[in-house]
Specification:
The complex is a heterodimer of chains A (972) and B (333). Helix content of chain A is 63%, strand content 0%. With 972 residues, chain A is mostly helical. In chain A, helix 6 crosses helix 9. With 333 residues, chain B is α+β, with helices and mostly antiparallel strands. Classes of the chains: A mainly alpha (972), B alpha+beta (333). Chain B: One of its GO terms (molecular function) is crossover junction DNA endonuclease activity.
Chain lengths: 972, 333
């Protein structure tokens, strides 16, 4: 145990070693067996070590080698030797590795350094010597030998041979060591103090001295090693006991010592106390860890890893420490020195390092964040310092920096930053400005303007002013929309309602309470009362209002009609609200404004439920829209209003680039007519590239769809629904009473209309039923937001709404077709409703009419909707069109009137069919086209697919000539 | 046509397999030989489906099947449609009962899990679908609870099966199989045979695997055409050109009405009201004996006669042997 302990450089490592030692302690014998084989290795090592005297001893040992005791002793001796050499030599390569590996990997580690260093010697001799020593040692015990014999005589020798031998015998040694340590334990304890003392003072030399003193064994060794690696205090070792040894080996040890000097400074104090504790090796090991010094070391080390000042510190330490080191409390001295030295030096060095990387690396993020960066020049000195003290100093400095920082940042951030630095200081990263607490960080983020864009966009738009202008413009535009949500407190209904903007009114219109009733809205039948009061006062919010609702859906009640539109609002309206496009527009807006919107939760989270709930009892006298159609009518006025207002404005193409949008936002007036003209023409999605398709789909808020066909189908549906909605709204205008409501804010009116429009599948199928976060209301056609599974949790209120009003839905839980197998049982219409209910995506109750469509929309996977087969299926399923029906009639006639065969082996087509023979479609089509159709008066040709439809309509078993694998059929 | 034509198989079925251990485990397959196929599923013989190879689910049982497929292709089509009711193009989208949710990794729609209810409902749907409705199919149920589920479904759905579609139950402890609803003469024959045997095989083991049930019919046809006593077409009254063309024979025992294939079909179709627009008759009345005829049976006989020389020979041969054996036994006793 002790010898190994010696090797350990740091407490942490020691802990590992302990465990290892325990495990390894038992296997001694195998090592013995190895002895004969190993000798060849040893000689080389010996020679390297230059230990002439050892070989002599070794020979003696050989004679006695048979006994286990001898072996153990020899092992002990070897260990001592090994330890010494290891300390000296191994330290150079890697103190840490050597120490750690020593128990397990001793062989590997030691041999590398040892063999070259020590000249080849007699292989067996060292072992013999070791055994001899052990024998001798047994009686006299480690103390005498360690101090006297081993140290003086062998120390030089031992070091060399040990290194050589060590590797070969290492396995043996490890197990043996503990035993030896036990035996020696008492003796060792006495010696320990010396070792410990030596370690701290002379980092380099200490190790050697320790090793020599290690002859005393366990504790001294451990202590020595640990100490020695970190701090190689030469003087202490000599003082303690093994001065002579120290003198011999110091040369080798020095380099290793340097390395450890950094680590060990604290241990210096410990050695003395450790001496006081003469107990088992384990205790010793633990002790150092407990002591302050080791702890510091560890901490330092950890810190060092993060720091980049190693170079500076080391030179300073070495130079300063060695001269200054005295035998006594070396470690303290050492620590103090290095820190001071570091401080002085570090500032100089640090600036260089820090600056260089910054200058070199110029990333986009750097560019982007440059403005917000706090000048670090003053701070630079701090980081380099290793010691904890340094960090504290840095902290002290930081406050100043922090104060500076805000100024630099320039923006309103300053106050927050100031707060941040304080927090961050504790964490002790000097350079990095501030670690904000989550809350403070969030606060800052809320204030912060974010610019989102691709790298190229960000890079190209360097002009901060432009970006800022964009931001502001967007902000302004958004404010109108956003306010309703933010400000929305359900309570508002009667009071401030008048004050609220039109935008809020949208939401109010759609707001529902838990029961699915409209909140405050007075349903207003324009048809009956053409002259709608411009002051549209919403009734008080029903008591039923749930708090939840309040948060999510601002039930803004106010004068809907009352909108005084300021230019900004106008602009915003123009962009967003046109009723038909409404949904689209809103979506588009949101998509385009994502950057801005992110900050604004309200926009993003439109409670789907508001719009979706179909069966809400209208609070007041108005007809309760049980079905979409009814509700639609009721709502229509709004739509009308919007239409009149916004007619000219078409939603900007979703594709529009963000930048463009922003620009537009700045000058809203520009937008109107052009896009509209474009809208009607259906884009040919087939011509799009996959990337474009994906983009389009994204613009609609759908998740990426892998298959191209599916993408196209989806887009087409989206487009159709979009256009339909638009058309519907426009058409509604004429029918609707446009005059009355015109004054109303378009936005408010638009929303209900959009929601109502049956054609659109409004929400995108969400895995989570919660309509909450997504702004389904905005875009009935497209579910823009991604279905968030978490959404439910996020906005409980919405969920509650959605669930409450409608059918009990399996919300998010099982997207699986829970009802799938069963639904078939129900009539189709029913099944659909079931599916809807079961469908997690459709959280809100849908009108029966729209449900089908929705389902189709949402169940993109379902073959019917998007798959390629759609066409064919349609044909099969659907009653053939008149034309097709005529064709079928002709085909039937042609088939049945064809002359019967005279050869039973070759029946006519009709006979084949009658005999249930599978018909080959191509052949039949070819036959029909080869004059048969003409014969029956059909001018034209028939395609095999048409023939297939005909066959299937007639229960005729038909086949393609080629099977699905492209091979001909062999049997029928 | 390079296509090699065969007579309509004596039996081709699409079956519903259910684990006797776990009733939720279902499998749909098709086979011309249900007992053999069942033994494969149960691991008794080689060749079972992987899906049914799990030991914990064995033994399997065929709880029901659809028989009467006029060809292997037809059976496979039906099997696929029944297995993939969410995809099958034979099902009009307006009446599709099973809708898939989600997609598999390859982008294909995911198949909803089968349940007995879903299978039966889709079976009910498929036998009514234009692509299959005129096929000479027949439904068999071998387990009471499945039949009960079927009846339940039939009660709930407003779409009725065509009355001519035979549905047969044959339960284990039922003794002689009884007809749940209308049954064909062929089925009747099979049932009678079963009943005659002391320990009548039931279920799939009672199904006729060969042409034995229509042996007499085949013999009659053979006799008629062998001796060229077709006479005139029962429909158009024109003389039948023996050996030229396809001529169907009435399936009723004592009737030797022969007619042109087209004439028969036209007659039957017009009788059923589908007239000009139809191609395939389902059943009808023999213009000669006014007995019920089923187009499937007639075509089976016709194809057997026209194309199935081997089968006919085998069928008739075996009979002779039997007769001889029986006679020998009788003699011995």
């Amino acid at each position: 145990m002790t010898p190994r302990g010696l090797l350990f450089p740091s407490p942490a490592r020691m802990a590992r070693n302990d465990a290892i030692l325990i495990v390894s302690s038992s296997p001694e014998f195998p090592s013995i067996l190895d002895l004969p084989t190993k000798p060849p290795k040893k000689p080389a090592l010996r020679s390297g070590s230059n230990a002439a005297p050892i070989p002599e001893n070794a020979i003696r040992a050989f004679t006695t080698a048979a006994s286990v005791w001898r072996l153990r002793q020899s092992d002990e001796g070897e260990r001592n030797q090994e330890e010494e050499p290891l300390d000296t030599q191994t330290i150079q390569p890697n103190p840490t590795t050597g120490a750690e590996s020593a128990p397990n990997y001793v062989i590997e580690l030691s041999p590398a350094p040892a063999p070259p260093a020590k000249a080849p010697g007699v292989p067996k001799k060292p072992r013999k010597a070791a055994t001899m020593r052990k024998k001798k040692e047994e009686i006299p015990i480690a103390q005498a030998q360690g101090k006297g014999s081993t140290v003086p005589g062998h120390a030089p020798e031992a070091a060399s041979p040990a290194a050589v031998i060590g590797p070969a015998e290492k396995p043996k040694r490890k197990p043996r060591a503990p035993k030896a340590s036990k035996e020696v334990g008492d003796d060792v304890q006495t010696t320990l103090p010396k070792g410990k003392v030596t370690k701290p003072p002379t980092k380099e030399k200490v190790a050697k001295t320790v090793a020599k003193s290690a002859t005393t064994e366990k504790r001294p060794r451990k202590m020595v090693e640990t100490v020695s690696r970190h701090f190689a205090p030469d003087p202490p070792a000599p003082k303690t006991s093994s001065k002579p040894i120290v003198n011999d080996e110091p040369i080798d040890l020095e380099p290793a010592m340097r390395r450890r000097t950094e680590w060990t400074p604290p241990p210096e104090n410990e050695p003395l106390p450790s001496q006081a504790h003469p107990s088992s090796g384990v205790e010793e090991q633990t002790q150092p860890a407990d002591t302050d010094a080791p702890g510091r070391d560890v901490f330092k080390n950890l810190l060092d890893t993060f720091g980049c000042q190693a170079d500076n510190a080391q030179p300073g330490d070495t130079t300063g420490v060695q001269p200054s080191i005295d035998i006594l409390g070396k470690r303290k001295l050492i620590e103090m020195l290095p820190t001071s030295a570091n401080k002085t030096e570090t500032p100089q060095i640090s600036p260089v390092k820090s600056k260089a990387p910054k200058k070199k690396l110029r990333t986009i993020t750097d560019l982007a964040t440059e403005a917000y960066r706090v000048p670090e020049a003053s701070e630079s000195p701090g980081p380099k310092q290793d010691s904890v003290l340094d960090y504290f100093e840095v902290e002290a400095e930081q406050p100043g920096n922090a104060s500076k920082g805000p100024n630099n940042a320039g923006k309103a951030k300053a106050p927050k930053k100031a707060a941040k630095p304080k927090v961050s200081k504790k964490k002790a990263e000097p350079r990095k400005q501030i670690l904000l607490s989550p809350t403070s960080a969030l606060k800052q983020v809320s204030v912060q303007d974010f610019v989102f864009g691709t790298v190229s966009q960000l890079a190209t738009e360097e002009d901060p002013d432009l970006l800022r202008a964009l931001h502001e413009a967007m902000k302004e535009s958004n404010q109108i929309d956003d306010d309703p949500f933010r400000a929305s407190s359900p309570v508002i209904s009667d009071l401030a309602a008048g004050r609220k903007r039109a935008g809020k009114k949208h939401w109010a219109a759609g707001a529902r309470d838990d029961d699915g009733d409209l909140l405050d809205l007075d349903v207003f039948d324009l048809t009956e009362s053409p002259a709608a009061p411009q002051d549209y006062r919403l009734p008080k919010i029903s008591t039923a209002l749930s708090t939840v609702d309040l948060t999510d859906s601002p039930a803004v009640v106010g004068d809907i009609g009352r909108t005084s539109i300021d230019p900004v609002a106008l602009a915003s309206k123009q962009r967003a609200p046109p009723p038909p496009a409404l949904t689209h527009d809103i979506e588009i807006l949101s998509s385009n404004y994502n950057t801005l919107d992110l900050a604004d939760p309200p926009q993003i989270s439109f409670p789907k439920s508001h719009f979706s709930t179909q069966n809400p009892r209208v609070v007041q006298n108005q007809p309760k829209p049980s079905t979409a159609g009814e509700s639609r009518e009721v709502l229509r006025p709004y739509a009308v209003v919007e239409c009149s207002f916004d007619l000219d404005f078409e939603p900007p193409p979703s594709n529009q680039e963000h930048h463009q949008l922003i620009v537009q936002s700045q000058s809203p007036s520009n937008m109107s007519p052009a896009p509209r003209a474009q809208a009607p023409s259906k884009p040919k999605f087939e011509l799009f590239t996959d990337a474009q398709l994906a983009k389009e789909i994204r613009s609609y808020g759908f998740k990426a769809v892998k298959r191209r066909t599916a993408m196209i189908a989806l887009l087409e549906q989206c487009w159709e629904s979009k256009t339909k909605a638009a058309l519907g709204s426009t058409t509604a205008i004429p029918s609707g009473l446009s005059a009355s409501v015109s004054s109303k804010p378009a936005a408010a009116a638009a929303v209900p209309a959009a929601a109502v429009s049956p054609s659109r599948p409004r929400g995108r199928p969400r895995k989570v039923s919660s309509a909450a976060t997504v702004p389904p209301a905005k875009s009935p056609t497209r579910p823009r937001g991604r279905p968030k599974k978490d959404a439910v949790a996020a906005s409980p209120s919405k969920v509650s709404k959605a669930k409450a009003p409608s059918i009990p839905k399996p919300t998010a839980s099982n997207p699986k077709r829970r009802g799938a197998p069963t639904p078939p049982l129900v009539a189709i219409a029913d099944s659909e409703s079931d599916s809807d209910s079961s469908n997690p995506f459709t959280s809100s109750p849908m009108s029966t009419a729209s449900s089908q469509e929705r389902r189709r929309m949402f169940s993109s996977p379902s073959p019917d909707d998007l798959s390629i087969t759609e066409d064919t299926e349609m044909s099969l399923v659907m009653s053939p069109s008149d034309q097709q029906e005529a064709l079928f009639g002709h085909i039937t006639k042609a088939v049945t009137t064809a002359p019967p065969t005279t050869d039973p082996a070759e029946p006519s087509w009709h006979e084949k069919m009658l005999m249930y023979d599978p018909v080959i479609l191509e052949d039949l089509a070819a036959w029909l086209n080869a004059g048969q159709l003409d014969r029956v008066g059909f001018d034209g040709e028939v395609a095999p697919t048409d023939v297939k439809k005909w066959c299937e309509s007639q229960s005729v078993c038909c086949l393609w000539r080629v099977n699905l694998r492209g091979k001909g059929r062999k049997r029928f | 046509m390079t296509i090699q034509t065969k007579p309509i198989p004596a039996l081709y079925t699409v079956y519903i397999l259910r684990s006797t251990v776990r009733h939720a485990s279902l499998y749909i397959g098709s086979t011309p030989h249900p007992p053999r196929r069942l033994s494969q599923h149960n691991g008794v013989s080689k060749g079972g489906a992987v899906r049914t190879s799990r030991g914990s689910l064995r033994p399997w049982e065929m709880v029901g099947l659809v028989s009467g497929f006029p060809s292997m292709v037809a059976a496979l089509k039906f099997e696929w449609a029944l297995t993939n009711p969410h995809l099958s193009m034979h099902i009009p989208s307006s009446s599709r009962l099973t809708v898939s949710r989600g997609t598999k990794r390859n982008g294909q729609p995911r198949r909803p899990a089968h349940s007995m209810g879903s299978i039966l409902s889709n079976l009910h749907l498929l036998v009514r679908v234009p692509s299959f409705e005129r096929w000479p199919l027949k439904l068999h149920f071998f387990v009471p609870d499945v039949l009960a589920a079927w009846k339940r479904w039939c009660a709930t759905t407003k779409d009725a099966l065509r009355p001519s579609l035979p549905v047969v139950k044959d339960f284990a402890n039922d003794g002689p199989p009884s007809r749940a609803t209308a049954s064909t003469s062929a089925a009747a024959e099979a049932g009678q045979e079963d009943a005659e045997q002391a320990r009548a095989p039931w279920g799939i083991y009672a199904l006729p695997l060969d042409y034995e049930p229509i042996k007499e019919y085949v013999e009659k046809g053979q006799a008629i055409f062998e001796f060229e006593r077709e006479g005139n077409c029962v429909v158009c009254r024109e003389t039948i050109d023996s050996g030229r063309g396809l001529h169907a024979v009435c399936s009723n025992k004592d009737c030797e009405g022969v007619g042109h294939l087209a004439c028969w079909s036209r007659n039957l179709l017009s009788a059923s009201g589908s007239g000009e627009t139809g191609i395939l008759p389902i059943h009808g009345e023999c213009p000669k004996c006014h007995g019920e005829v089923r187009w499937g049976d007639m075509m089976k006989e016709l194809t057997l006669r026209v194309r199935g020389g081997k089968e006919v020979e085998k069928l008739l041969k075996t009979k002779r042997r039997r007769v001889t054996k029986a006679k020998a036994k009788a003699v011995d006793t």
